[in-house]
């Protein structure tokens, strides 16, 4: 059968340049010897789950050498890995920040909330099997209520239809399936699939977590994943490279999390857009492998394409401890390939001295509002933020490693020894079944439980809004502190009055014990049960367990060895959770005339605002049902209201999805107008699918977040930006807008807008776009999936 194995072999054979290969291997006996050595090195499996798919450093090295010679300059590590995966390293135009690259990623990973739509799209493609190793991870649909085991059992029951669909689709199309309870996608990837030099795409914005193992791991929408699973080259705008030079070394209360909290404060939520953040310098070696993953994970919060660290002994040790010593040995052989070239240049550089870095806490309501712990108390009082900490939450994909749990337990043990427990509620989310089993074996879970903590399921839980919170009423002003990555309004608990702050797990633990936001463990004292004053000592813990990791329960389902051609994947036409997709309509061939402004959005509009998570996650596989949450969190500039817009056909006010449906039913296409960094946050492509499904044709904003802009293009929408940002102010909530110039739609050529106001006056201005020729074909076909079918 034609599988990703045979496809990859054919690609390698057809792309080899015979004279170059002949030169590399030499003549006669010498050629045979080198060829045998190459083959011996190639026989290292990418993972224990795919023993016949091999790490291919020789191909990576060959491509890097081609590109380095072409560009005639040293390469950053990011460039080596990205350019090393070019579909055509000889002919590809390469200009950082300008050209689009056609890449061949090594693998795909999908979490269960986004995998539903990705697999529905793959089914629509008509292809029999995925072309690259791919996995599905069940982590998003488990709601935190009363504790890990019971919450997991409840999730398996209420999500049985979705889990069965994903498991059967995985089996039929050759996709590995990690069952609910296995852990969070990014921790599973780090433990099993990431390795230095791999290029992985994942349908979650925190996929960059794998950069802690020297990987280029990039968050994408489901349609991008479908391209890669279909064996089509994946397009990425050639990233710029921001260098972060680390000097000194971490110590005391300062943790890896503080590095990215500091960087977020410097670069802001959009400072990394269109760039890979590459950490380097002597300070790198003071950070554990899982600590580097924490830093890369939260790089999504600065808009970065991804983040990466160079291969070092910390990564080698982690690979060995997770059963991948053979990959570590091979990486040692190619160590020069897996670090930046001496003399390479970055587009910009940030320098951080770890000796001087202090513990930070970021928030509320945005992850780039950075405060040193020493300042947060006074800042909170000044701004009227509640000082009482209601809940402390540690874990999540960002901070749930063995080291994280150990450092938190170190703090908790000190409190217990003095007769104290947490004043705030306290929850712990293990990142994987392996972490859960190991911290239970080694006593960390007991310490964290004894101090007042509740261990939740191995899942995303409250980090993504899967939290049945009952200690405060909706609208009640309160403070929570988490070791998560995002703290957008209402993200964790659906309460817009919750002030969420992000810090390291050990700082969160200390604040949960103290019960107040203005407690700085570096200088402040606690009162023991006997009345004595004491200070918490800086936390200390092992980077990795002294014994081997305890794998816990086996939660992985292999695709059947005989293939899935005889298997069926059924979707009930009456299901409220799953819905087969219908193709979107093609471009009609003319300009888009008189698009009604549906909503003019004021201020920050993340993908949480566009397509909320939490209780809506259950509809992620049913496009029509999930569309009932479209833009219900966005602020309407007309009235500062949420989910309250005027229906221009009836004159009545209603919810955004309801008005959009009414327009669609009456043949009226519409447009959304937005502000800066529109669509920041999650990779969820539902934020692009829903507008398209409900009759939207165009989104016009000051600037886009990378993933969301691409997702809109994939679904046949027009993401456009004001050539002059101040033109945003010219648009009124009841305007109609015509998009002109589509008959001559070409890369680099602006389109124009004619705005018809209700008083009879008009405005016109230029709109920029970033479409290339292939993406214009997506628009003309109605979607990337439609175009894929046209080419079959």
From TrEMBL:
One term under GO cellular component: cytosol
A GO biological process held by the record: tricarboxylic acid cycle
Single annotated GO MF: 4 iron, 4 sulfur cluster binding
Annotated Aconitase/3-isopropylmalate dehydratase large subunit alpha/beta/alpha domain residues: 79-515
Pfam family, one: Aconitase_C
Record pathway: Carbohydrate metabolism; tricarboxylic acid cycle; isocitrate from oxaloacetate: step 2/2
Catalyzed chemical reaction(s): citrate = D-threo-isocitrate
Residue ranges of the region described as Disordered: 547-568
Enzyme Commission code(s) on record: 4.2.1.3
Cofactor note as given: Binds 1 [4Fe-4S] cluster per subunit.
Gene3D superfamilies associated with the record: Aconitase, Domain 2, Aconitase, domain 3, Aconitase, domain 4
Cofactor dependency: [4Fe-4S] cluster
Compartment(s) where it occurs, according to its Swiss-Prot or TrEMBL record: Mitochondrion
Record-annotated Aconitase A/isopropylmalate dehydratase small subunit swivel domain positions: 596-723
Broad class of where this protein is predominantly found: mitochondrion
Enzyme class of the recorded protein, top EC level: lyase
Family: Belongs to the aconitase/IPM isomerase family.
Function: Catalyzes the isomerization of citrate to isocitrate via cis-aconitate.
Name of the molecule in the record: Aconitate hydratase, mitochondrial
Source organism of this protein record: Oncorhynchus kisutch (Coho salmon)
